[in-house]
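Can anyone check this?
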Amino acid sequence: MIAILEGLLFVVGDDGITIDLISSVLNISEDETKRLILDLKEEYQKDNRGLRIDYLGNSIKLTTKMEHKDYYKKLIEESENILSEQAIEVLAIVAYNQPITRMEVETIRGINSVSLIKKLVLKGFLKESGRKDSIGNPILYKTTNEFLDYFGLKSIEDLPKIEKENEINEETDLFSHKYKEE
């Protein structure tokens, strides 16, 4: 059960999880849940562990140990200038379709992009640019000057031109036709 609790804490991330929800998911009493949390907390207090459990009201979440903060800070500083392929993909989608909602980005990518968009906003590559006039009024995102600087662009118009889907399909058909004739 302790491994399952650890997994639950990992899955919920920074949002944390309530003791009630843990009890419900594990199908155990609140007292058993509290005991399980204490057991895991004791495990994390050992010197060979880098995590700890923090309480947020009636919720708990995993965090890193403060005594290792210099290493975490160094990691963040060294990786600040590195963008993953997924981050570049999100940036490309936003750049060519801005302003765009998170849900529209996810529809194009076919995968959840919440954390990537949050990271790109924190890094200054994306910013909120209002709300879409549709159900729920979702946030619209667009690229920033930081994005332009990072990629050596003077303006968004300097992005490489991409072919429209119809043009691509016409070229594919033309190629297929020529290939069949030969």
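Reply from J.R.: I decoded it. Confidence is low (pLDDT under 50) at residues 166-182.
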